[in-house]
Amino acid sequence: MPIQVLLPQLANQIAAGEVVSRPASVVKELIENSLDAGATSINIDIAQGGTKSIRIRDNGSGIPKEELALALARHATSKIARMEDLERITSMGFRGEALASISSVSRLYLTSRMIGQSKAWQVYAEGSELAVTIKPAAHPVGTTIEVLDLFYNTPARRKFMSTAKTEFTYIDDITRRIALSRFDVTFILQHNGKIVRQYRAISHKYQHQRRLVGLCGQAFVERAMGVSYHNSNLAIHGWIANTAGVAIIPELKYSYVNRRTMNDKFITHIIRKAYQEQFTETQQPAFVLFLEIDPQQIDVNFHPTKHKVRFYQDRLVHDFIYQAVANTLKQNSAPPSFVDVN
Ligand code: ADP
Ligand code: MG
Q1: Does the pLDDT at position 125 exceed 60?
Q2: Domain for residue 336, yes or no?
Q3: Does this UniProt record's set of keywords contain DNA damage (predicted)?
């Protein structure tokens, strides 16, 4: 076969393989877009584990009519414009890839009303690179994205999806992870028309415990020790617990870097080590930990899902986290109590 440039539709579908592996990754990308748009309330409505439909509605800034079609184009983003921007990135997104990828493997409706505008508009894309139809719609300020029939045109991917129940478990997990990092935002998760989770935004510190119980369960919160350390370059806060002998559902091993949820062995490994130093093997670490670091000290553009970051000074970061966890465990060898640190 001669060398030829792939059609945009096919190129997007191939790229989608990296960003969108299952319904939960769609949910993650869409929630992150809502947060980047400044939303304070996000509704996530799922049908059949997301295999039938995923609808995310937010009250964020909305998208101007002229940019609606562009939002679905590949490498189109409002979040960075030049290389330097990447070095101090604070938004969740920056590649301009999610909507292009998702729309190439689904039927997607994007409806939005921009702040200060009286009308809402809707575009529809069905596995095409650029949406062509745009029509007026009824919608309050903010954005709704509806993703139908995910992977309908990529049978190989479709085959790899689990049951609706399992796919929903992944969606529940990613929603919880993100909701843990943003107590100031309301998240309402529905499955097949029923409200499954309601994480209400809180504005006062004294409500933190309630929201944490809603997210992580009573058993975790009862055993949670507050972690709070910082030096001139790094800060860590959150909760750790020994959960040996109690069933913690879900399994809480959540770490974040600059509020971005991580799926990284690096941090989990450090925490395990600190636990082993302090306790016997039977202790089960559970944790929710937020690391804050100067964005210039990390590379977030290191992994397609942004679930991993690279630390330029990984030794320093390692030692800092280790110390914070080890000190907390030592100080709390007495029965732990809830400490509010968020
Ligand atoms: P990225 O998030 O990397 O910029 P996406 O493909 O996820 O790329 O989104 C493309 C663009 O569409 C964003 O840069 C943003 O301008 C706009 N957008 C997407 N979702 C929303 C939303 N919920 N509210 C407002 N704007 C949005
Ligand atoms: Mg995005």
Answers
A1: yes
A2: no
A3: yes
Long-range Cβ contact pairs of 261-265 (< 8 A, separation 24 or more): 261/174, 261/177, 261/178, 261/181, 261/307, 262/307, 262/308, 262/309, 263/305, 263/307, 263/308, 264/307, 264/308, 264/309
Does the predicted model carry a pTM greater than 0.90? yes
> In terms of domains, do 120 and 233 share one?
no
Whether 231 and 152 share a structural domain? no
Task: Report if residue 68 sits inside a domain.
Answer: yes
CATH number of the domain bearing residue 130: 3.30.565.10
145 and 23 inside one domain: yes
Considering only CA atoms, which of 238, 220, 225 is closest in space to residue 291? Answer: 238
**Domain-located, residue 3:** no
> Which of 32, 33, 95, 102 to mutate for ligand 1's pocket (most ligand atoms within 8 Å of CB)?
33
CATH of the domain at 314: 3.30.230.10
**Over the stretch 176-191, which tens digit does the pLDDT of each residue have?**
999 999 999 999 999 9
Torsion, Cα of 44, 50, 135, 65 (10° steps): 50
Tally the domains of the chain. 2
Provide the β-strand partners of residue 226: 239
pLDDT tens readout for residues 63-110: 999 999 899 988 889 998 898 888 888 889 888 889 999 999 999 999
- 28 CB less than 6 Å from ligand 1? no
Compute the distance between CA of residue 72 and CA of residue 216 in angstroms, rounded to an integer: 35
β-strands 260-262, 253-257 pairing: antiparallel
CA 153-159-165 angle, 5° bins: 110
User: For residue 46, what are the domain limits?
Assistant: 8-199
Q: Do 248 and 161 sit in the same domain of this protein?
A: no
The finding on whether 33 has its CB within 6 A of some atom of ligand 1 is: yes
Ligand 1, atom 14, lies closest to the CA of 77
173 and 310 in one domain?
A: no
The alpha carbon of 336 and the centre of ligand 2 are apart by a number of angstroms equal to 39
Asked if pLDDT for residue 339 goes beyond 60, the answer is no
Do the beta carbons of residue 34 and residue 42 sit within 8 Å?
Answer: yes
Nearest alpha-carbon partner for 24 in 173, 157, 152: 173
